[in-house]
Amino acid sequence: MSAPSKYTRQPIVSVLGHVDHGKTSLLDFIRGSTVAAREAGAITQHIGATEVPIDAIYSLCGHLLGGKKFSVPGLLFIDTPGHHAFTTLRTRGGSLADLAILVVDINEGFRPQTHESITILRQYKTPFVVAANKIDAVNGWQHSTEIAMNRIQQQRPMTKTLFETKLYELIGAIYDKGFESDLYFNIKDFRKSLPIIPISSKTGEGIPELLMVLVGLAQRFLEEQLKSETSAGKGTVLEVKEDVGLGTTVDAIIYSGTLKKEDTIILGTQQEPIITKIKALLKPKPMDEIRDPRERFEAVTEVHAACGIKISAPNLDVVVPGAPLRVVHNDEEELRQEIKSQSQVNIELDREGIYIKADTIGSLEALVKESREKGIHIRKVEIGNISRRDIMETAAVTNPLERVIFAFNVKMLPEAKEEVPNTEVTVFNEDVIYTIIENYDTWLIQKKEELEKKRREDYTHPGMIKFLPEYVFRVSHPAVFGVRVLAGRITTNMRLITQDGKSIGTIKGMQSDNKAITEALQGAEIAISIEGITIGRQIKGGDIFFTDIPESDVKRLLCLDVLNEDEKDVLNKIIDIKRKTNKFWGM
Question: For the chain, which has fewer Cβ within 10 Å, the N-terminal or C-terminal residue?
């Protein structure tokens, strides 16, 4: 049998960036432009991807290429914008995207999803370029069809200065993420610096240059990586969905080899891989050919990498987004083991910690990595929507700080939604990993304070105060005077003793800045009221008082690690006072 022949496939290009920074409009402009350049090379829109042939790129880029020809047959843009598609397109420890575009609104700069996107790009070691979008919104910007270098020079001085200021801010933000960058025409070594291409997806400025840079990088650095064989197809599942008249289908990206109608394929699930036979390979008609919505799809007999395709086959409902797809050939068992190892989540878990749910294997891995970097312990991970069982299981966790579910891009099922208010479970359900972590950090601080306050209410806390002689507001019935909290804390209804161990009564009220309070911490100067004493008789200015702690609370405080060093010192002073009359007190 002759060896399969090799050909150069088009690189898979993912588009990432913050919401509203122009990912979709960039792809829309590319699609619209290439349809307009149809005589040079027709656009083909597959499932989840837009294929831009090299002839369309030649037509769009024109004189920019100086007549140069490429062996790369075009570019395959992943249509699902954002890092969701990027993390779904995964293989062992890496992404199947050959290149990526990080779209940044030059006027807004880095936003949460920008930070997240660049972190994920670094994690997967994917080469990328930066599209500095919305230059048309820079104050005073004048549209031009010139190349970037000339367009910038032609702007009015104030506009040029404003653009350069925003550019340097962008370069600084990229540098903070560990990357050197510059305008693409200033870069001498593309292996050391990220190219920034100023564009407007609204007017189309810079988009030919963006395509030129992408094709150039692919040709120069990825040629070997882009060699594909006309052998058994390999792909990754992008989405699993219900289609009217078709049942459950999968949208997949084929990145190597050939896929044919009636091929037997193996796909990953959360359990054992499934083997099924393709009933139909479907792709949408090119955008300018769609006439009747009932004929959106065109059946094809085979496809070659790289492309996006919809597959109709039995038993696809258990397939996991992000799982591998392979054409079954010689060794079925070996293939089964390979698929299983790549489809199942192999993440080292802690005995205790939070629960993480995500929509795909790739996004689960990304969320786990971000959580680990924040020092968050993880007890369980799973792909799929949040069920009532997930809520009940999390509610049973002993540590209240770990009754938490991180949920990325998934739904909460109705029964789970009903159950949450009856539990102490907190669900962080977002479509931005950065936001999940940020919200969790805020919640954690508040929750710790809440738990600390509750815990301190369970026992009498050590406190030491000094009577401030210059603040006597009432001598008796009740005595009202100013004190400074020297250490620990005091609260209302707390009994006080002198340095000799004599009781002076209970704090009935406390005020700070003429407002009633219930608690005062170290350093606070407040007024307190005590019934049953007279200033000048039982107490006088300058006296030091301590909280009268029950002996049972002392034993608990000694066992629990809840006091700081100053509070421990106050507790020891109280123990010494009590042991003057009972040498075994607190033992």
Answer: N
Asked about 63 being catalytic, the answer comes back as: no
Q: Which two tokens stand for residue 205?
A: 């400025």
**Domain shared by 362 and 378, yes or no:** yes
Question: For residue 435, which of 406, 401, 410, 412 has the smallest C-alpha distance?
Answer: 406
H-helix or E-strand spanning residue 340: helix 332-343
Dist CA 7 CA 110 (whole Å): 39
**Contact by Cβ (8 Å): 328, 266:** yes
> Residue 143 belongs to a domain with what CATH number?
3.40.50.300
Burial of 22 per CB tally in 10 Å (0-12, 13-18, 19+): buried
> Residue 412 is part of a domain; what is its CATH number?
3.40.50.10050
- Identify the residue with better confidence: 266 or 343: 266
How far is residue 452 from each of residues 413, 445, 569, measured CA to CA in Å? 33, 11, 20
Domain encompassing residue 59: 6-228
CA–CA distance, 186 with 204 (Å, rounded to integer): 21
Q: How many domains does the chain have?
A: 4
Q: What is the DSSP string of 143-156?
A: ---S-HHHHHHHS-
Do 450 and 487 sit in the same domain of this protein?
A: no
Catalytic residue (choose from 18, 21, 46, 83): 83
Task: Tell me, yes or no, whether 280 lies in a domain.
Answer: yes
Q: What is the dihedral of CA 286, 287, 289, 292, to 10 degrees?
A: 120
Q: Is the CB of residue 103 less than 8 Å from the CB of residue 26?
A: yes
Q: In the structure encoding, which two tokens stand for residue 203, read together?
A: 């007017």
Query: In the prediction, which pLDDT does 279 show?
Result: 94
Whether 78 is in a domain gets the answer yes
Any domain includes 584: no
pLDDT digits (tens, 9 = 90+) for 330-369: 777 778 888 877 766 778 899 999 999 998 887 888 889 8
Beta bridge partners of 49: 46, 78
**Cβ atoms of residues 31 and 50 within 8 Å:** yes
